[in-house]
Design goal:
single chain, 291 residues, alpha/beta, 2 domains, 4-stranded parallel β-sheet, 3-stranded antiparallel β-sheet, globular
Length: 291
C-alpha cells in the first residue's frame, strides 16, 4: 500500500523527534494536567499555543505537531459524522499545512481510517499505537499494533514513561484522584520505547530521573540507537492469541533486528510468559544465518 500511494519515507527518516531523545508531558507524565492558575485545561491549551499554530509555530521552534483525540473529534463533530469527505479533507489540509511550514505530524487516538489516510500524507511520520500511558500498567505491549503502523509507513509510539518508580506530586495522580501511582517496570518501558523506532519520551519530575536507564537508548548527543525496523510480535504469538492450541507462546515474544553493513544483529524480547515455550529461529522473523 505504501508503494501504491507513493508514500515518501524521507520525512519519517528525518523527523528529529523520532531520532533524538525528547521530553514528554502527555498522559502519565509528572506534569500532565498542569494548568495555568485559575484556568481549565482547555483554556490553558487555547491561550498558550493553539491559535494559528502552524502559522506561528516556526517562530518558536515547533518541529512536530500532535493531533490528539482523533477518534473523539471524528465521532463528535457534525461534519465528520454527516459527510463522507470532511474527515479526509481535515487530515489532508492539516498535512499540507504542516508540509508547507516544515513540520511533521504525530497521530494519536486515531482510527485505522486515519492511519490509512496518512499513506497520502508523508509528513505523518509517527503515531500512538496504544491506549494512554498509566504508570503500573502494561503500557509496553505494542507488538501487534506496531505491525499496522509500520505497514502504513508510520513509526510506532508507545507514549511517555517514567524512568523512576516514584514521581512525588505528579500531575497524573491528581488527574486520576489517586496518590499511589508507581511504575515498577521502568526498564521494559525504556527498552520498548527504544526498539519501537518511534519517539522515546521520558516524563519524570525535573531532578528525579534515572539518567543511566534513559541514556541506554541513545548516544551522548541524544541520537536514539534504534533498530532497522520496529519491534513486533512474532507470527506464532498472534496465532496463539487468535486460535489457541499451543501453537505459540502464552505471553509476549517480540523481535526486531539491526542491519549494520549487511550484518544482521537480532533482538528477541520475551515477557509475561506463563508456560515454557521453545522459540525456533525460523519463527523469529529475523533473516539470520544459522551456524
Amino acid at each position: 500500500m505504501r508503494d501504491f500511494y507513493g508514500k515518501d519515507p524521507s520525512y519519517r527518516k528525518a523527523d528529529m523527534t523520532i531520532n533524538y531523545l525528547g521530553y514528554w508531558t502527555d498522559n502519565g507524565a509528572t506534569y500532565f494536567w498542569n494548568t495555568e492558575p485559575h484556568k481549565s485545561y482547555e483554556q490553558t491549551i487555547y491561550d498558550r499555543f493553539w491559535n494559528d499554530l502552524f502559522k506561528e509555530s516556526k517562530l518558536w521552534g515547533l518541529t512536530v505537531y500532535e493531533q490528539d483525540f482523533m477518534s473523539v473529534n471524528t465521532d463528535t463533530i457534525n461534519a465528520t459524522v454527516s459527510d463522507v469527505y470532511s474527515g479526509k479533507s481535515w487530515l489532508m489540509d492539516m498535512g499540507n499545512a504542516a508540509r508547507m511550514n516544515g513540520l511533521t505530524i504525530q497521530y494519536c487516538m486515531g482510527y485505522p481510517r486515519h492511519v490509512m489516510t496518512a499513506l497520502e500524507i508523508p509528513v505523518v511520520t509517527q503515531g500512538r499505537v496504544l491506549f494512554d500511558n498509566r504508570p503500573s500498567s502494561d503500557h509496553w505491549t505494542i507488538g501487534v499494533s506496531s505491525l499496522f503502523a509500520e505497514a502504513m509507513g508510520i513509526a510506532p509510539y508507545k507514549d511517555d514513561f517514567w524512568s523512576m518508580e516514584v514521581q512525588p506530586g505528579n500531575g497524573y495522580s491528581k488527574y486520576l484522584h489517586t496518590s499511589d501511582l508507581t511504575e515498577p517496570h521502568t526498564a521494559i518501558h525504556g527498552a520498548i520505547s527504544t526498539l519501537s523506532t518511534g519517539p522515546v519520551g521520558p516524563s519524570d519530575q525535573v531532578g528525579n530521573s534515572n539518567v543511566s536507564l534513559i541514556m541506554r537508548c541513545c548516544n551522548t548527543e541524544g541520537l536514539i540507537l534504534k533498530p532497522s525496523k520496529p519491534i513486533t510480535a512474532i507470527d506464532k504469538q498472534i496465532q496463539q492469541m487468535a486460535f489457541g492450541g499451543n501453537v505459540g507462546p502464552e505471553g509476549k515474544v517480540y523481535t526486531t533486528y539491526s542491519n549494520i553493513n549487511n550484518y544482521i544483529f537480532g533482538v528477541i524480547l520475551a515477557a509475561n510468559i506463563s508456560i515454557d515455550y521453545t522459540l525456533m529461529v525460523q519463527d523469529t522473523g529475523i533473516n539470520m544465518v544459522i551456524f
